[in-house]
Structures are given as C-alpha cells and as structure tokens.
Amino acid sequence: MPTAEKSLLRFVTTGSVDDGKSTLIGRLLYETKSIYEDQYEAIEKTSRKKGLKEVELAYLLDGLAAEREQGITIDVAYRYFETPKRKFIIADSPGHVQYTKNMVTGASKADCAVILIDARNGVLTQSKRHGFLISLLQIPHLIVAVNKMDLMDYDRSVFDGIVNDYQQFSEKLDIHNIVYIPVSALKGDNVAVKSPKMPWYEGSPLLAMLESLNISADRNLVDFRFPVQHVLRPHADFRGYSGSVVSGTISPGEEVAVLPSGRTTQVKSITTYDGDLKEAFAGQAVVLALADEIDISRGDMIVRRKNLPQIASRLEAILCWMDDRPMMLEKSFVLKHTTRTVRAYIKKIVYRIDVDTLHRQPVDEFGLNDIGRVELSLSAPIFFDAYKINAATGRFILIDAETNRTVAAGMIRDTARRLEDYVSEPQAGRTAEPKSPHTVWRALNIGRAERERQNRHQAVVLWFTGFSGSGKSTIAMALERKLFDIGCKTALLDGDLLRHGLCSDLTFSAADRQENIRRAGQTAKLFFEHGLIVLCAFISPFRQDRETVRRLFPEGRFVEIYVRCDLDECRRRDPNGLYRKAENGIISGFTGIDSPYEEPVKPELIVDTQTLSLNDCIHEVEQFMLHQRLIIRPDNREGR
Hints:
The chain has four domains: about 5-215, P-loop containing nucleotide triphosphate hydrolases (Rossmann fold, 3-Layer(aba) Sandwich); about 225-305, Translation factors (Elongation Factor Tu (Ef-tu), domain 3, Beta Barrel); about 310-420, Translation factors (Elongation Factor Tu (Ef-tu), domain 3, Beta Barrel); about 445-635, P-loop containing nucleotide triphosphate hydrolases (Rossmann fold, 3-Layer(aba) Sandwich). It contains 16 helices and 28 strands. Helix 10 (about 470-485) packs across helix 16. Helix content is about 25%, strand content about 30%. Mean pLDDT is about 85; it is low at about 65-75 and about 420-435. By secondary structure, it is α/β, with parallel strands linked by helices. The strands form five sheets. Strands 7, 8, 9, 11, 12, 13, 15 and 16 form an eight-stranded antiparallel beta sheet that branches. A six-stranded mixed beta sheet has the order 2-3-1-4-5-6, sandwiched between helices. A six-stranded antiparallel β-barrel has the order 17-21-19-18-22-23. Strand 19 and strand 20 (about 360) form a beta hairpin.
C-alpha cells in the first residue's frame, strides 16, 4: 500500500543579533541527521581553531566569510531537512535592523515563524520588530523560543518573565497562535527531545511542535486563482496555459472566467509532466486546457466564474521600503503582481508605522526598512484579493525601472479611495468629507432631533445589499408602504431610480460603482438629517464602499441588511434582463458575471429570499426596528 506523501512546512527563524538562530537550525539539522560527516568535521575543526568548547553548529548556515568572521547572519540562509512525519524548508533571517528587508524576504512564504529571545537579555526592540512583521505578513503560527536557558541555570522564573513581557506586546498584534518554548540550542535542550533539566516545562519540544502544526487550515483552498505564465501550443491540436495554482482548487468541467476579458468557458483538462489530473490545488504547477478558444496571454488570470477577485488600478497597501535611497513620490516603478507587470506610481504616504510602539506617524518619505501605508496608482488594473484574505494575490514588489533593483514589497489592503483630493473641516455632528471648493457648510434650518420628535420615530438608514435580483427593491418598497401606512416619514432610494437621474452619467466600472454608492450615501444622509426612515436598495458590492457610507451616520443609525440569495437563482429571476446583457457583453463589470460581490461580514440583519416569503422578510426587518426602538408599535404611537 503506497504511503501518503509528507506535508511540507516552511518556517522562518528570526530574532535579535546573537540570539542563536543559526545554532538552533544547526541543532535541528544535526538531530535529524541532515548533515554529512565531512560537513560536521569541517565545522568541528573551525570551532577548535576558534578555541570553542562546543562545536558551533551555526557554521552550517553562516556560509559567507563575513558572517563567520563577525559571528552574525547577513543574508537569508535556506536549508532543507525532513523527519519521518514532515518535510521542512527553513529560512534563517538576519537579526540586524539594517537587514530587516532580508527578514521580510525570508518570511514572505512561511507557514510558521520562530522568534528566538536570549534568556539573558529578555524582550528587545528587535524581538518586537520581528513580531510586528510576522503579524503584518499574516504568518499564522508563531513559536517564541527562549534560548540560552543553560546560561540562566534553567530558571523557570526567567522564562515566565519573558513570556509575560512578550504576551503583553503581542496583544497588539494580529497573531492568534503563539507558543512559548524554553530551549538551549547549543546543548540541545527541548529542541528535538524534552529536556530533563526543565521538568517544569510541560509542553512539546520544538521539533515535535513543528511536526504537529496544522497548516492545511491556514491555506486558501476556496478562491481559485491561476495567473497565466505561458501559452503552450506544441501542436495544432492542443493549446494550454501553464502556471501555478496560487490558491484554491480546480477540476475538469468547472466553469471559469478569464480576466481581464471576462470571457467564460470550462476547464477541459489539467495536465502535468506525469499525466492528467482530476484536481489541481494550491502549489501545483500545471497546464490548463479550456473548452473554448479564448485570447489569453501572460499576466491574465483564470478564476472561477462565481468567485472573482477585485479589479482596480488604484490601491491601498502596506509597503516595506527595501532600498538605500529614499522613496520618491510620483516616480515611475514597475509593479510585479503574480505574473502581471504594470507601471506604478506612489501617489501618497498615508502614514509610517513606528515598529517599536506601533504608532502611526505622518512622514514625507520612506527610508530603508520603513513600513507604512501608501496609495498607489497603476497604469492598468490588476486582479487581486486583500492580502489578509489571500496572500498569494495580495502581495507585490516594486522594481526601479532604471536600475532593475527591487525597492519595496507590498501587501494590498484594498482599492484606494480619493478623499484626499479635497479637504473639509468637521463641523458639529458631521464627519470630515470631500466638498466642492469655495463652499461653506450651513446647518439645517430645522434640526434632526426636532423633526424626530414631530415624526414620533427615529431617523435611520436601512441599507439593503445583495445581488441584482435578490429582492432588495421588492422588500424595500413593500416595507416602505407598511411604514408609511402607520404614519412614518420615509424615503426610498434604489439603483434604478438614481441611475435614471442623479447617476445617469455613470457606467458599471469599478470607479463609477464607487461613485454611485458615494452619491447614494450622501443623498441618504440629507434625507436622514430631515428625520426620515431612508430605505436604500443598492447592490453595493464592495465592503469598503458600504463602510464608507456607514461612517456618515451616528452609531446605530445605519442598518446593513444582507438580502441573501444564491447567484444562480438571481440569474434565473433576472428581473431587468441585466444578467443576460452582461453575459452577452453589452454590460461590462457587472456583479456576479465579471465583477465580485463581497458579502457583509457582520450585517445587522440577514434575510434569505430563497427560504422566506416577502411577508416574512418584512416581518424580520420590522421586528428588528421595534426591538431597537427605531419605531414603536402603531397602537402605542398616540401615547408616546
């Protein structure tokens, strides 16, 4: 019976200078019998020459002469080893602050990070710096190895103090799985086997911890993304597209879309050197053959038809500057994202992050190893997911076109917003928003509170979001009639109404969709300030657009209602024939066809129009409003 293939774990070791990173990895290689006898004899000889009592296993990794002379790691050293349970690739990254960029490089594809802390020195600035970078890179597992416990007589109180200090710092980070292990890399304590010298430690040794980490749950197996590298045409009867599946899975027969064209087809076959596959998954290099002849080239992306990435040419990103020369705004760079390259410009530095305090600082430029949030403008759109959701399509590098040097690495947060083009001073009860020049805000003639008293109900915005055809407008219209009949003051806004007037100049492009929701939000704001219950029915597919509208209103006065309905059912309903037009190429950028819909994360209410009747949906919303005291029962209105 064939044995199951071993899983592969990539992990990075890091920490402050001289914390023992290279020694720890040398110990792992030695304990797993992953070094040759002549290698061991060579480092044994070098150790004797230097008058060392112990064999310095760090020399297995410190390959550069400069590293051995200084006793430090400069470049990222990669090593491979395996045990009966798992294969491992280790990246030993530098500890010096000036080599932070090397650490980012080594950690960019890691499943786990091991931070070493010298038991003699405790938690240092560089220990925190690397913890922050691990959080930023969304590495799911962190092991804090408190090293050189032998020099502290294996004192438990030393270990507990360091654990307490690092736990306090790590509470500010986005890392959910942190394990602490006391070790001595030089002596081998708690590295491969449990040490009898620290009986108070009840956990597993480091190697066992690395063998048992569950990494399959950390990988994105949902969002299929296949950046095309090459078009293969070995003969007239075969056309295939080679590349690596960077996330998700795919099987022959599944429907896919090709970006940027938006053309749809099916996967005909999945081929490798060893033959055809029934399924391909993240990490595999394959050749996809499609059922239809479609114009596809390098840099295009093949995705599932019903699971689309974002498409944008303006981005918000966290950037790590890796060049000795300071960043220059408006300078032209080459942005490399998956297999696609486009021209890019850094339009704005939003802030720099002080990695010691995690505070945000306003700056005019980035220097070497600076990290912060920026806005980028691209010469052509790219297809991406937010880094937090899908690291494979959420990361990129910037290259200086003149020198061909990689100057920065970035993690995409979302599409960029253009609020910086205008400046507005916040007034009482208002948030800062863009405004036309030479205008002055004037308070409303009759305030909202006064109108609410007369209306006998709260002003509120009910924001219905969901696919076209899910039933948003139907529910909003029926609910408005019921609220109106009991005496409530209402206003109804939906996409069709606005696109026939206020938004008649907008298309379905990503930028125009954003502008459409901005105008809808501002219109709802005016009705809200007049004390009305404003019912808004918009597809509003992007979370950030909906959150931007939410911020216009006081806490509790914006109610996001997710009108849930399966996309296939919405396409079957197709009340306005929009899906048919989108499939025929008449409308581009239509949600569910060639543009994604981002489901609400925490909506105030969900109504499912596939399982609930119209009356049931209205009842759900009405009960929510009664419970939140946004309205009162009709029989209680006179006594209010």
